[in-house]
């Protein structure tokens, strides 16, 4: 199998430039081959490469095929069962300025990318990550080892259990499920068919379900002056801002991501 034999069939899933980029990523990162190697005819075991190609042709994200993705310049393990971290989520991490020894809660931690990143970049912070999924927590713990940080990961359903937990936090951050069911028709196949729906979708009639639950918990659990940070669905940014205002949060600020979308919000108790 040549380089062209690898990438050309992938145009059934990606445009031509993306297909070539995915093929290069597989060859360079999975097999350790440079493009110079490939162009001089050096290719990996054909059976293994064909197996990877078959997975990619089904639309399976290349990050799941490789078993990792880059987030903030670090490699995080990803497998079906956790969302693939996006660059805009790292922008949220960069916006959070932790001060000294502080208590931080990441709700819906998934792969642990937010929790582990904050723990790496703010080493004095005491970071906890909650998720309802046992599989996600297994992957998050793997990523804490990969990044050499201590994060306390706990299985908690924020919609049902959090009010019984008496901890107090300086910061609560969340990238919650925020895609309405009616938005499925506009989503890419590799997201819709492979990434966990539990971490993506909310009911059409209640798009603020998780924002409301987490903000309500924050009213009790944030220390005075504590801050709440969310990643946003840009379609509902104004509604989330209004919700937080009605719940008597103050210093509310919406921030755009690198693509000019209203992607994150913070507020203070």
Mean pLDDT reading: 94
The computed structural class is: alpha/beta
- Taking the alpha carbons of the first and last residues, their distance comes to 59 Å
Rounded Rg: 20 Å
Describe the structure.
This protein has eleven helices and eleven strands. The chain has helices at residues 3-7, 16-30, 35-39, 46-57, 62-66, 87-95, 113-121, 134-146, 189-192, 209-221, 237-246, and strands spanning 68-71, 74-77, 103-107, 126-131, 151-155, 169-174, 179-180, 201-202, 222-231, 250-256, 262-268. α8 links the parallel β4 (126-131) and β5 (151-155). The protein is elongated, with a radius of gyration of 20 Å. The termini are far apart.
Features:
single chain; 269 residues; alpha/beta; two-stranded antiparallel sheet; 11 helices
How do you describe this structure in short?
The chain has 269 residues and is of the alpha/beta class.
Topology:
Blueprint: H1 3-7, H2 16-30, H3 35-39, H4 46-57, H5 62-66, E1 68-71, E2 74-77, H6 87-95, E3 103-107, H7 113-121, E4 126-131, H8 134-146, E5 151-155, E6 169-174, E7 179-180, H9 189-192, E8 201-202, H10 209-221, E9 222-231, H11 237-246, E10 250-256, E11 262-268
Parallel strand pairs: 3-4, 3-6, 4-5, 6-9, 7-8
Antiparallel strand pairs: 1-2, 9-11, 10-11
């Amino acid at each position: 199998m040549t380089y062209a034999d690898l990438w050309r069939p992938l145009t059934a899933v990606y445009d031509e430039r993306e297909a070539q980029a995915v093929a290069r990523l597989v060859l360079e990162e999975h097999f350790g081959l440079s493009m110079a190697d490939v162009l001089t005819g050096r290719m990996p075991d054909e059976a293994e490469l064909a197996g990877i190609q078959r997975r990619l042709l089904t639309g399976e994200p290349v990050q799941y095929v490789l078993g990792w993705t880059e987030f903030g310049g670090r490699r995080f393990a990803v497998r079906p069962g956790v969302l693939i971290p996006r660059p805009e989520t790292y922008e949220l991490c960069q916006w959070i300025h932790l001060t000294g020894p502080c208590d931080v809660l990441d709700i819906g931690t998934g792969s642990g990318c937010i929790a582990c990143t904050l723990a790496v970049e703010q080493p004095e912070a005491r970071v906890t990550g909650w998720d309802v999924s046992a599989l996600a927590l297994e992957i998050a713990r793997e990523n804490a080892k990969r990044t050499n940080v201590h994060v306390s990961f706990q299985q908690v359903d924020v919609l049902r259990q959090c009010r019984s937990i008496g901890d107090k936090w300086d910061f609560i951050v969340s990238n919650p499920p925020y895609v309405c069911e009616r938005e499925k028709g506009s989503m890419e196949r590799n997201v819709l068919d492979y990434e966990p729906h539990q971490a993506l979708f909310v009911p059409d009639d209640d798009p603020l379900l998780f924002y409301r639950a987490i903000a309500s918990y924050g009213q009790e659990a944030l220390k005075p002056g504590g801050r709440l940070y969310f990643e946003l669905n840009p379609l509902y940014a104004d509604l989330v801002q209004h919700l937080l205002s009605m719940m008597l949060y103050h210093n509310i600020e919406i921030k755009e991501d690198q693509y000019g979308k209203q992607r994150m919000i913070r507020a203070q108790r």
